[in-house]
Write a structure and sequence with these properties.
The structure holds 3 protein chains of 3 kinds.
Chain A: E1 6-9, H1 13-24, E2 29-32, E3 48-49, H2 60-76, E4 81-82, E5 86-90, H3 99-109, E6 114-116, H4 118-124, E7 134-138, E8 141-143, H5 145-158, E9 162-164, E10 167-175, E11 178-186, E12 191-196, E13 199-202, H6 208-214, E14 221-231, E15 239-242, E16 251-255, E17 258-262, E18 266-267, H7 278-288, E19 300-311, E20 326-330, E21 339-344, H8 350-365, H9 384-391, H10 396-406, H11 410-418, E22 425-427, E23 432-433, H12 434-441, H13 449-456, H14 468-478, H15 487-502, H16 508-524
Parallel strand pairs in A: 1-2, 1-13, 2-9, 5-15, 13-21
Antiparallel strand pairs in A: 3-8, 4-8, 5-7, 6-7, 10-11, 11-12, 14-17, 14-18, 14-19, 15-16, 16-17, 20-21, 22-23
Chain B: E1 4-9, H1 13-24, E2 29-32, E3 45-46, E4 51-52, E5 55-56, H2 61-64, H3 73-77, H4 79-95, E6 108-111, E7 117-120, E8 122-123, H5 129-133, E9 137-142, H6 151-159, E10 168-173, H7 187-194, H8 197-212, E11 220-224, H9 233-244, E12 247-250, H10 259-273, E13 277-279, E14 284-290, E15 293-301, E16 304-315, E17 325-328, E18 331-334, E19 386-388, H11 398-401, H12 404-415
Parallel strand pairs in B: 1-2, 1-16, 2-13, 9-10, 9-11, 11-12, 16-19
Antiparallel strand pairs in B: 3-8, 4-5, 6-7, 14-15, 15-16, 17-18
Chain C: H1 15-19, H2 21-25, H3 32-43, H4 61-65, H5 72-86, H6 91-97, H7 99-105, H8 111-119, H9 121-130, H10 146-151, E1 161-166, H11 169-174, H12 176-188, E2 191-194, H13 204-208, H14 212-231, E3 236-238, H15 241-254, E4 268-269, H16 270-280, H17 292-295, E5 299-302, H18 306-311, H19 316-322, E6 328-331, H20 350-366, E7 371-373, H21 377-387, E8 390-392, H22 394-402
Parallel strand pairs in C: 1-2, 1-3, 3-4, 5-6, 5-7, 7-8
Helix pairs in contact in C: 3-5, 12-22, 16-19, 19-22, 20-21
The chains are: A alpha+beta, B alpha/beta, C alpha/beta.
């Protein structure tokens, strides 16, 4: 007896998009993720909802996909999309000859461009360099990768899809050239079990090579490492790209209260190689200077890196010249039916990728229900009544913030806010309430403080968790959250992960912040210190 | 502005101790302060040395000083200086109505907001773990309306400790005062309320009610966040101990720590009495020197420079946190005199893989000779009448050693007589 | 120069909120860290203001206590200016912000009527209804402004040196005697005082009440006037620490585009100037005034206004008092008095202001001193109101001693 017809491997945007699509078409499916939702590449990018303008010259087809999906996501994912516009800026260092072909390619791809006088651009964005020469407005937007994945997961669940995090696939079984089951280990319970299924979708991003190998297959992907910087404040309210052939360090994306600068491109040692290096940080800063000359004065909150799963067939190069298009490989042609891999692509086109993949799987399973993911919103708008009830507990400006973060779960939280202490701000830098933390903690996919961070932005602001992580653990102990049983171990894990992003940016105000954080957890709370009396 | 005998820069623990030591020796003292000093947000304890190379210091921390590297500030000053400074400081606290001292010659282990214990040397003596464990029952006061009060987390952690195994651990809830507030309250708000007669009555009666409902035969201690007043802490605690018949202890907590404010209050009162002038919001940006003498320090405010002349200078400007040292990628610089510190060029070498292990960056600071004069790479004193104290000094990691307060007090006390 | 609006220097140490007298005494105020740099990150995102923004009294203890040079109060005042564009300030705030203009309008009404009006119960009820607390110690209008009195004043002939005096609105409108005391002491030190007509209110009350554009116009006029005198090499003195702070620090943070290059718009504190005169021997320290020992006036309790502490120049008023032989000047060291310009006059802030000042008031009551001193005019009003003791500008005390009163 099979509980699920399809097993999707990988809890990033692509996998979760496929799970949602399958579930909406009535196919029973479960998603297995070795870590947590959006732990991988989907949370380790610049947060840009591409207009496609960046790819217009090099790959008009990819650009067209982008602009179409851009419009779709603005429609279905309004809670996840920030409607900031994009500016493409020709700096003093860029080649003017690129402008014409770029404009033509944008027009061909259906991307609207509008010239903005450099003075007007500087009025809009005073931090831009005075030496900019030409500026064009494009329909870029911002997208919250964490939120997108979570809202997809909640929608998938409503349609019967299941999400199992901390589930590492250890084997893929087949018989007579056909997939029969997946062997998976629940890493928290340390239990391994089999999930019988008809189809396995390999959407493991940079790990998809490893998953394919378990099935005795090969896929041509190269994990390509991109390092990014998160700055403490929003020094631009537009997304700013350099108007030149895509290169490193040429995109600034405002994202909620912060700004992200990306990206680099270098071959990763392995899919888990996401520790940023200081020289990458310094390089990004110098690359960012032609757009924002004061970029070195802005405080870097942290550096982070993600691995793009680039498709690199044997005769192609990896890195920036590799295609940003996505690829679906049906391994049936290589002798294994019921196993399909998907990789490449961009977060902007995750839904389209999911649709194509789901079309293929449904075709094979004989399911004829059409795809509706382009029409059905990820989350419903909260009701006026719920907004009004929340507004009695929260200042007006924060009600909207919470509504956007939570999407469909907004109604669930109003009760929590109405409880005594529910509207306490546990994270004062990102304005996260106790009720939100408790709600996120109650989700079956939440196993660590990181999961709460992704859901709420707890610990992602100025203090990088110095104050709120202790408060959150305190609150979680009160409600008896299972993973808070050893609060000290959970805190160490969380702070250690934050440290990974702080270590490459140890200067300026961030060293002060680090010294304060160590004063709190080392000196005052003795979180690390040995103690003769603890068992 | 008239020259003084001593100009101290910084009004944290090191700066104030230095100023009070110098004043007690009859010097005219001016303190130039930028910011309120980290004491304002710290706790009521002075750590001397809790760990050496990650190993717990057992017994008398002073006996462990010899195991520190030679360039550690304690080694530079010597054990005798540490003993004298701690004695001076305890007396200072006592004279100013604050109960911060050491009862034994061993480290005390005091409870934290997290439920862990940390080794410290000078503190309110009733905060010691041994004192808590000397009771049959420990009541953990919970204030669910205080987002920084984590009674359940403390109880869970205590239950894991051998010494609490056969003790009754009980959580009691205290009702809120003053109704709904727009701001989330902190223990400091409660402590300030308890400083008033109404607040003292409020807390005292709540505790007494809870205790009255329990079996009177058991010897009881009550653990609270640091809410037992700020300026009137000692008298409030004494009265409340009498009213409840229980030992009252407090945790140390993240900023604002309340206890540090008690120390700050005591020290600034003492400074005012001793005629120490504290110039607030005074940003010292440069020094005027002649050979190996410093003539004056330059304060800049509102675009206007002002020279502050003195015979001797004590620089207690703090480390990265306090602003005495600033970092740019791969470089660290002292902020008044502007000399570069001996920092690793590679940023990778600033940090160790584990956040809470000993960190190389944390040991960055001003290298000094036996008189606490800054030295050149060749080991010569840069200026003979400038002394460095507190976290500005190189060679120690207060967070992993638990040595911050001790180095601050000792170096402040050690520098002043040399002026 | 880094954009003043960016909040990057704040490291969330909480010191400003610990040291904020309003946060200490009003549990509804989120405090300077949250309303200042923390909320600034969300202002840049277009998020609305927190409802407790109005509680800030602009006393600047946040700026004084911050270890990282975060312009905390500037964030808050700019936010208030923005909020005032959307929702204009109350008429009450207009009244409190425009003391200078009001005085100008009312100048033809004799002070006795004006003050009868202000002290008259129905008028106070009306003001109370507008939002000015009935109990608040509104200062009385002087019969003649300082400027008018100054015009008819004959200073001694042949004084060797000149200085410019910026009296500040308080001295000008409510307490001209303090201004005359200053002129008299300056004269005695050999300085002729000039009080130009070109200066207007420094603009601080305008900013604190949300009238940003009016403050900007005043700043422009004042900076032009200041340049005229500093170009002639004449120091411009003020008796008001708030005016000095507004010129010296706030203009640069509020209106950086108005600042001429290479000019630091400094108003010199008159006590600091006179201390210098004494040190240079231009003004000799007086002998012990006759009869002082018996009247008990040889003991002064001195309160340092917050804005003076924010100036970062120490406590020159206290130093000046301590230069007077036989006078014992004790430092109250009790924090903010709670008035903060016009803050403590407001109906919804009066009680907060009184709680803020309570430490100072009890220090005043406990002290043996019969006479208190402070540089700031509204501090003096609040001290008389809350502490019940006569309070003068330090220079007024110096003049009494010089005159042997």
């Amino acid at each position: 007896m099979r509980a699920f017809r399809v097993v999707v491997i990988g809890g990033g945007a692509t996998g979760i998009g496929i799970l949602r699509d399958l579930s909406m078409r009535g196919v029973t499916a479960v998603l297995l993720e070795q870590g947590g939702l959006a732990y991988g590449t989907s949370s380790r990018f610049h947060g840009l909802l591409h207009s496609g303008a960046r790819y217009a010259v090099s790959d008009v087809e990819a650009a067209r996909e982008c602009i179409e999906e851009n419009a779709v996501l603005r429609r279905i994912g309004r809670h996840c999309v920030e409607k900031s516009e994009g500016l493409f800026v020709l700096t003093a260092e860029d080649d003017e000859a690129y402008v014409r072909p770029w404009l033509e390619a944008c027009a061909e791809a259906g991307i609207t461009t509008e010239a903005v006088a450099p003075d007007e651009a500087r009025r809009l964005e005073p931090a831009l360099s005075p030496e900019i020469r030409q500026v064009f407005r494009v329909p870029d937007g911002g997208i919250d990768g964490f939120r997108l994945v979570w809202h997809n997961a909640m929608s998938a669940r409503r349609h019967g899809g299941q999400v199992r995090t901390c589930h590492k696939v250890t084997g893929i079984e087949s018989a007579n050239g056909r997939v029969t089951a997946v062997e998976v280990c629940d890493t928290l319970k340390k239990e391994t079990y089999r999930l019988a299924c008809e189809y396995v979708v390999n959407a493991a991003g940079p790990w998809s090579g490893e998953i394919a190998r378990m099935a005795g297959q090969t896929v041509d992907i190269t994990p390509d490492r991109g390092t990014l910087l998160a700055f403490n404040h929003r020094f631009t309210s537009h997304i700013v790209n350099r108007l030149h052939e895509s290169a490193d360090g040429d995109i600034f994306v405002p994202h909620g209260s912060i700004t992200i600068l990306g990206t680099t491109s270098a071959r990763a040692k392995n899919p888990a190689d996401t520790t940023p290096a200081p020289e990458e940080v310094l390089r990004l800063l110098s690359l960012g200077e032609p757009l924002f000359p004061a970029v070195r004065e802005y405080r870097i909150l942290r550096a982070f890196a993600g691995n793009r799963p680039l498709y690199t067939p044997p005769d192609h190069d990896a890195g920036r010249s590799a295609s940003r298009n996505f690829v679906i490989v049906d391994h049936e042609k290589d002798g294994l039916a019921g196993f399909v891999s998907i990789f490449g692509g961009k977060l902007t086109t995750y839904r389209l990728m999911a649709e194509k993949m789901t079309d293929l799987v449904c075709g094979r399973l004989g399911v004829a229900t059409p795809c509706r993911t382009a029409e059905v919103p990820l989350a419903e708008q909260p009701s006026e009544e719920m907004l009004a009830r929340a507004a009695r507990r929260l200042p007006a400006h924060r009600t909207q913030l919470v509504a956007e973060r939570l999407g469909d779960q907004f109604a669930d939280i109003v009760g929590g806010l109405e409880k005594s202490g529910g509207s306490d701000l546990l994270c004062e830098c990102e304005l996260v309430t106790r009720a939100e933390v408790e709600l996120a903690a109650g989700d079956e996919a939440t196993h660590f403080l990181h999961d709460i961070r992704f859901r709420t932005r707890l610990g992602m602001g100025t203090c990088q968790g110095s104050y709120c992580s202790l408060r959150a653990m305190g609150a979680l102990t009160e409600i008896g959250a299972p993973f808070a049983a050893d609060a000290q171990a959970a805190l160490r894990l969380f702070l250690q992960e934050r440290w990974r992003g702080l270590r490459p940016v140890m200067w300026g105000a961030q060293v002060q912040e680090i010294e304060l954080g160590r004063a709190i957890y080392g000196s005052t709370l003795n979180l690390n210190g040995g103690d003769d009396e603890t068992d | 502005m008239k020259p003084t005998d001593v100009l101290v820069v910084g009004c944290g623990l090191a700066g104030l101790t230095a100023a009070l030591t110098a004043a007690s020796r009859g010097k005219t003292v001016r303190v130039a302060a930028r910011g309120a000093g980290t004491l304002a947000i710290g706790n009521a304890c002075v750590d001397v040395l809790g760990y050496v190379n990650g190993e717990i210091v057992r017994g008398n921390p002073l006996d462990a000083l010899g195991r520190l590297p030679e360039d550690h500030p304690y080694r530079i000053m010597g054990t005798e200086a540490v003993v004298k400074a701690l004695r001076f400081f305890s007396r200072l606290c006592d004279e100013n109505g604050l109960d911060i001292r050491t009862e034994s010659r061993e480290n005390l282990w005091i409870p934290t907001a997290l439920g862990s214990f940390k080794p410290t040397c000078l503190c309110h003596p009733y905060m010691d773990r041994k004192s808590l464990q000397g009771h049959d029952r420990v009541i953990i006061a919970h204030m669910p309306w205080l987002k920084d009060c984590h009674a359940q987390m403390i109880k869970t952690a205590f239950a894991r400790q051998k010494g609490f195994r056969d003790r009754e651990l009980r959580i009691v809830e205290l009702a809120a005062f003053g109704g709904q507030t727009h701001r989330n309250l902190t223990p400091l708000d409660v402590a300030r309320f308890v400083d008033t007669p109404d607040g003292e009555r409020w807390l005292s009666s709540q505790l007494a009610n809870h205790v009255a409902q329990l079996d009177a035969g058991l010897c009881t201690a009550v653990l609270l966040p640091p809410v037992l007043g700020v300026e009137r802490h000692r008298e409030i605690r004494m009265r409340m101990t009498r009213n409840t018949g229980c030992t009252l202890a407090e945790t140390v907590i993240p900023p604002p720590g309340v206890g540090g404010l008690r120390i700050r209050h005591a020290l600034t009162q003492a400074a005012a009495r001793a005629g120490v002038q504290i110039m607030e919001n005074t940003h010292i940006v440069a020094a005027r020197t002649q050979g190996r003498q410093c003539l004056s320090l330059v304060a800049e405010n509102n675009g206007r420079g002002r020279e502050l002349a003195a015979s001797s200078f004590i620089v207690a400007t703090g480390g990265f946190l306090g602003g005495g040292v600033v970092a740019s990628p791969g470089k660290a610089r002292e902020t008044i005199f502007g000399f570069d510190l001996d920092a690793p060029e590679r940023i990778e070498d600033w940090g160790a893989p584990d956040l809470l292990d000993a960190q190389p960056y944390a040991r960055l600071g001003v290298k000094v000779n036996g008189r606490l004069n800054a030295i050149t790479p060749d080991g010569d004193a840069r200026w003979d009448n400038v002394y460095f104290a507190g976290r500005t000094l190189a060679g120690y990691d207060f967070a992993s050693e638990k040595s911050g307060g001790g180095v601050a007090i000792c170096s402040g006390h050690y520098a002043a007589p040399r002026c | 120069m880094t954009d003043i609006a960016q909040p990057d220097r704040c490291i969330v140490c909480t010191t400003c909120t610990v040291m904020c007298p309003v946060a200490k005494n009003c549990l509804d105020f989120l405090g300077p860290r949250m309303i200042g740099p923390a909320h600034q990150r969300f202002r840049l995102l277009g998020m609305g203001e927190d409802e407790s923004l109005h509680y800030c009294s602009n006393c600047k203890n946040c700026d004084i206590s911050c270890p990282c040079d975060v312009p905390v109060s500037t964030f808050i005042m700019r936010a208030r200016a923005e909020a005032s564009r959307e929702k204009p300030p109350k008429f009450r705030d207009w009244i409190l912000a425009h003391g200078e203009l009001l005085a100008c309008w009312l100048r033809f009404i004799p002070a006795v009527f004006k003050n009868f009006g202000m002290g008259f119960a129905p008028v106070r009820l009306l003001l109370h209804a507008l939002g000015i607390a009935r109990q608040a110690p509104l200062p009385a209008f002087a019969a003649q402004t300082f400027r008018r009195k100054f015009k008819s004043l004959s200073q001694p002939q042949n004084l060797p040196r000149q200085v410019v005096l910026f009296p500040g609105c308080f001295v000008d409108i409510y307490e001209p005697e303090s201004g005359l005391d200053i002129v008299a002491v300056l004269n005695r030190a050999g300085y002729e005082a000039i009080t130009p007509e070109g200066f207007v209110c420094c603009g601080l009350p305008l900013v604190a009440n949300g009238f940003w554009q009016n403050a900007r116009q005043n700043a422009r006029r004042n900076l032009e006037e200041l340049a005229r005198w500093t170009d002639r090499g004449l120091p411009v003195l003020t008796a008001c620490p708030s005016c000095a702070l507004m010129f010296g620090k706030d203009y640069a943070e509020y209106f950086p585009d108005l600042l001429p290059r290479n000019l630091s718009p400094v108003l010199v504190d008159v006590c600091e100037f006179l201390t210098g005169c004494m040190e240079r021997g231009e003004l000799s320290a007086p002998d012990v005034a006759p009869g002082a020992a018996t009247t008990g006036d040889d003991h002064i309790l001195y309160h340092a206004p917050c804005h003076l502490r924010a100036l970062g120049a120490g406590l020159p008023g206290l130093e000046l008092l301590r230069l007077i032989p036989g006078l014992r000047a004790e430092y109250a060291d009790s924090g903010c008095c709670g008035i903060s310009g016009s803050y403590g006059f407001k109906k919804d802030k009066y009680a907060i202001g009184m709680r803020v000042g309570s430490a100072l008031f009890s220090a005043m009551r406990q002290s043996d001193a019969k006479l208190c001193a402070s540089e700031c005019g509204t501090c003096r009003v609040q001290m008389r109101h809350g502490g019940g003791k006569q309070t003068l500008h330090p220079v007024s005390i110096l003049r009494r001693w010089l005159d042997g009163k």
